[in-house]
Design brief:
The chain is of the alpha+beta class. 15% of the residues lie in helices and 36% in strands. It has a single domain, classed as Hotdog Thioesterase (Thiol Ester Dehydrase, Chain A, Roll), CATH 3.10.129.10.
């Protein structure tokens, strides 16, 4: 069973208060895999009829970081690796998923993939995140630190 992740206000990728948000809604399952189904539009265009690479990088950054947040850690990215395998088409259903792959004393590693409607991986990524609750306390996004 999947559980919906609450959206966060002004987020560029998923915030309902941001008029420029890409508008993703996030779900997490019992295995800790975060997913979202979405369609990109002309606001995310790079090459004609395809998404800008920065839009797909932002989506993967959010997914790979949010899966760590969903595990209870307030983090920030210190390294992102994005691999473009196929262009992302606009106006067609896409899916993103992310998972934690490793944790050590200070760093949390996660991976993510954006898939085309036929399941083909179009963009993949790997992120390294470190705890950074101090970045979020000031704006009232968290009530506790972990």
């Amino acid at each position: 069973m999947k559980q919906k992740i609450p959206e966060h206000g002004w987020c560029f990728v998923c915030g309902s208060e941001n008029p420029h948000s890409i508008g993703l809604t996030w779900w997490i399952d019992e295995q800790g895999i975060l997913t979202s189904e979405f369609t990109l539009n002309d606001a995310q265009q790079g090459p004609p009829d395809h998404a800008h690479g920065g839009a797909s990088a932002a989506i993967l950054d959010e997914a790979m970081g949010l899966v760590v947040w969903a595990a209870g850690l307030k983090v920030a990215a210190v390294n992102l690796e994005i691999n473009y395998h196929k262009p992302l088409p606009l106006r067609q259903p896409l899916t993103v998923e992310a998972r934690i792959t490793e944790r050590d004393e200070r760093k949390i590693f996660s991976t993510g993939e954006i898939k085309l409607s036929d399941g083909t991986i179009a963009v993949s990524g790997r992120g390294i995140y470190v705890p950074a609750p101090h970045l979020f306390e000031k704006v009232g996004l968290i009530n506790e630190t972990k």
